[in-house]
Amino acid sequence: MTVPDLPQPQVPLPLRRVLPAARWEAVTHGQSGAQVWSSRRFVLKVAARQGLARPLHAELLRLRWLTGRLPVPEVVGYEVTPDAEYLAVTRLPGVPLHHPDALVHPLRVTELLARALRELHALPARDCPFNASLSVTLRQATERLEAGQIDESDFDDERQGWTAALVMNELLRTRPLSEDLVVAHGDPCLPNLLLDGEYLSGFIDVGRLGLADRHADLALAHRSLTHTIGPEMAERFLDVYGRSLVDAGKLEYYALLDELF
């Protein structure tokens, strides 16, 4: 959903030169940590700078790599100031899969999500320059834990009362012996795929994309469907994706890993 009549974003001059004057509306769904604004034709993301981290630059690189491979927004411009970074992209048609208009047809949403991830995971892994395997993500999780960046109140219901340290210890204790690496979205929840009529119009919020076990995506998509539509459609999603590829233990592991992000 969008909320009108909020203060307009302060757009750096170089971006103002490539973005037409527009009425921006704040987009309130999503948990990327960035402020997101949309106009009729464009989307603008603004993220506060935290040390050397530049999450929107990471998304910029992934959008450019995905162009021509899968439907994603086109990059319009990127700017960095001492306090923030700004990423402007084109606005894809349609509504996110969690939108009431999309959920009128829950089976369609479920099956489109499964097929979209199959298509993404079928991209040649050898061509992907981004690493999101456990060697990387567990290190990032450790850094977030040590920096006190984990919101323990936001853990899933079954882990309410856990500490972030307990989650990390469990992740290390139960780390899978192998990874079935594919090109993974990193956060394929319903808000991050768009539906235009009967078809999927594209992927958004791809800043966590990289080579990872396919269950890194399957776990989050399964959880999103369970919470938004119900467990029956979540199981249908796994059927359409391909039960022979699904490991129940890994689904649990990667849902646990996401608690630290």
List the topology elements.
Elements (H helix, E strand, L loop, with lengths): L1 E2 L9 H4 L8 E3 L7 E4 L3 E7 L6 H12 L8 E6 L3 E7 L4 E2 L3 H4 L2 H16 L12 H13 L17 H10 L7 E4 L8 E4 L2 E5 L6 E4 H15 L2 H11 L6 H10 L4
Antiparallel strand pairs: 1-2, 2-3, 3-4, 4-6, 5-6, 7-9, 8-11, 9-10
Helix pairs in contact: 4-7, 4-8, 5-6, 7-8, 7-9
Structural commentary:
The chain has helices spanning 13-16, 55-66, 100-103, 106-121, 134-146, 164-173, 214-228, 231-241, 248-257; strands spanning 2-3, 25-27, 35-38, 42-48, 75-80, 84-90, 95-96, 181-184, 193-196, 199-203, 210-213. It is of the alpha+beta class. It has two domains: 2-90, 2-Layer Sandwich (Phosphorylase Kinase, domain 1), CATH 3.30.200.20; 95-260, Aminoglycoside phosphotransferase (APH), C-terminal lobe (Aminoglycoside 3'-phosphotransferase, Chain: A, domain 2, Alpha-Beta Complex), CATH 3.90.1200. The chain has a six-stranded antiparallel β-sheet with strand order 1-2-3-4-6-5, covered by helices on one side. A hairpin with a 7-residue loop joins β2 and β3. The model has no long low-confidence stretch (mean pLDDT 93).
Oligomeric state of shown chains: single chain
Can you tell me the CATH architecture of the largest domain? Alpha-Beta Complex
What form results from the Cα inertia axes? Answer: globular
Poorly predicted ranges: none
CATH homologous superfamily of the largest domain? Answer: Aminoglycoside phosphotransferase (APH), C-terminal lobe
What integer is the average pLDDT? Answer: 93
Output the strand order for the largest sheet.
1-2-3-4-6-5
Identify the CATH class of the largest domain. Answer: Alpha Beta
What is the CATH topology descriptor of the largest domain? Aminoglycoside 3'-phosphotransferase, Chain: A, domain 2
Helix tally?
9
Q: Kindly name the structural category.
A: alpha+beta
What is the rounded distance between the termini? 23 Å
In total, how many beta strands?
11
What fraction of residues sit in β-strands?
15-25%
SSE pattern: EHEEEHEEEHHHHEEEEHHH
The value of Rg in angstroms is 18 Å
Task: Count structural domains.
Answer: 2
